[in-house]
Please model this.
Amino acid sequence: MNIRNFSIISHIDAGKSTLADRLLELTGTVEQRKMHSQFLDMMELEKEKGITIKLQPVRMEYNGYILNLIDTPGHVDFSYEVSRSLAAVEGAILLVDASQGVQAQTLANLHLAQDQKLVIIPVINKIDLSHAQVEKTTKEMSQLLQVKEEDIIRISAKNGTNVEKILEAIIERIPPAQGKLDSPLRALIFDSSYDSYKGVIAYVRIVDGQIKANDKITMMASKAKTDVIEVGALKPEMVKIKSLSAGQIGYIATGLKNVNQCRVGDTITNDLGVSPLIGYQEPKPMVFASFYPTEAEDYDLLKDGLSKLELNDAALQYEPESCEGLGRGFRCGFLGMLHLEIILERLKREYKLNLIVTTPSVSYQIIVRNKKEQVISSAVISSANDLPEMNLIDEIREPWVSLEIITPNQYIGSIMKLLEGTRGEYKDTQYLSPERVLIEYHIPLNEIIVDFYDQLKNTTSGYASMNYKVLDYRKGDLVKMDILVAGDNVEAFSRIIHRESAFREGRSMVKKLKEVIPKHLFSISLQAAVGGNIIARETISAMRKDVTGYLYGGDYSRKKKLLEKQKKGKKKMKALGKIEIPQEVFFKVLKK
Model:
């Protein structure tokens, strides 16, 4: 069968999208007049940030062969997109930047490909750069993959140097797509999108059988039945064709209007007697934040936007919640901070939404007295409501990750100093080459989600790269911190934090509240409390009204009498008065 299915995998910024551009040009898939850089990065955000966010399939034809490429992202937050792509192909081009060498995400994506038992074609890119270290990188890759140095292809994707050798290697080294043409249909859904006329569009790898327009099909997981509207190839825009058969990659317009009936990882078939294909493990969100529309009437628009984004982003999870001061919104789960920022930016651009985002945090595991486990998130505004009474809790566990940092060896000292400031545990140091080191640390996820990556880049002048994978949940000395305003607990400000940082966080929170809560006619106490103990306090002084201003002359006792009366009035107001916290206070304190 003259079909080859492959992906390009690498660390971020190694030149995947540029290589894909050259392959499209060499195979004549895209006319020269239509060609532009990062052609497969269809989203405006991808072009702006210069990174791939969504996997993108494309069909090319070369010397009588059909070559199906799935371009993948390189950032750690989008590794689930990579794993979906690799399940649909037989081979992968492992692309390494000659100026950077093997980096953290290179290893992570390589391990994903090896787990799928794919043929790996090693390629070194950017050999045209003046600071390229081609020989050194070749030795690193040879050692890593246990291959001969002459089997590694050296290219410049920017200039097109040796790119044709990659096409030849794909045909020679990657096995042809297998599949039984005369068996019942089995197609693996690896991505999807929504069209208001054609319903859910499923991007599929046909494993067995064939499919054409008007065929009756069933989704094996959801049991949804439908008639196919059309099938086609991706070049990379959708091109309608008569049929798709075993080994091919293309799209199926299902006509389904309910996005939940056609999920990524499901098997499409025409015979429920066949066994389903192995799908994907559902990615588990590890970072949580809440989204609230600044205008209450935009709630339904936000709900619609999240449901559309969830269709082709299996890692996004959300559920409705409401909060005093902010109204109705959604608790959302993400794989990491970049994932959160991309979703937030897409909601703002594609749906013209103005959103408040709460401070990101992680999920926690609560072990209560009856040993039942319950996973909650402390970042979401209603997290305090999810917590059982503290006297019922045996322990609170937090997620730990294995953090891998690859760096030039001259930065080891400064990186170790940065890591010592966290609650992590040193595990190992390996020399990948005389100049490059891999440091492994086990560390609570909460320590690295917000600004650790930026600190690492600053510490190493941008040379270090990092990757992490979740290990497990471990017991931590974690406490619930409550914020009391005038003696009343404001649930929206409650958080789960480590005991060591409770004083610092509590102090910071009451100081911030003192700046943003408006003064009243009586003084207001602001307190941070852990387990009933006050750990930080600020007081907003009362507004001063001059009640003696109209008096003139006479005995001072008249003034004193009025001031005493004012003092009693303030005391009474303090005892009876209720603080209404304005909405803008919540906006200023809770937003990311």
Remarks:
- Residues 556-576 form the longest helix (21 residues).
- The chain has 14 helices and 31 strands.
